[in-house]
Specification:
mainly beta, single chain, 127 residues, 0% helix
């Protein structure tokens, strides 16, 4: 089991930056046992993949819509995964969710691959 708590969301003007954090409270497995991902859901739209990172942090995947602007990283010593968001656009407005998968990194862009989810944090970008 793992509990995920996102933070760092807020209101920002287009072109600005935000860094989201996802703190994991683990119980039966270390944080390093989990592959991690970020997803987002805008009003009236389906949840979509943003970025994923392997257990070691050596492999990452980023959605085309945010490539070159968003960076995912994790600090296993702090049980935390981050999403650095630069050059934000109005279309990045959404609730951002952190997710965890037990085991090896497979299909990181599929929401069905993840076992645990956080409650989400709102990001609003004004144009």
């Amino acid at each position: 089991q793992v509990q995920l708590v996102e933070s760092g969301g807020g209101f920002v003007r287009a072109g600005g930056s935000l860094t989201l954090s996802c703190a994991a409270a683990v119980s039966d497995r270390p944080f390093e046992a989990y592959s991690m991902g970020w997803f987002r859901q805008a009003p009236g739209k389906e949840r979509e993949f943003v970025s994923g990172i392997s257990r070691s942090g050596r492999r990452t995947e980023v959605a085309d819509s945010v490539k070159g602007r968003f960076t995912i990283l994790r600090l296993n010593g702090k049980n935390t995964v981050y999403l650095q968001m630069n050059s934000l656009k109005a279309e990045d407005t959404a609730v951002y969710y952190c997710a965890a998968h037990v085991g090896i990194w497979q299909s990181p862009s599929s929401s069905q691959a993840y076992d645990f989810w956080g409650q989400g944090t709102q990001v609003t970008v004004s144009s």
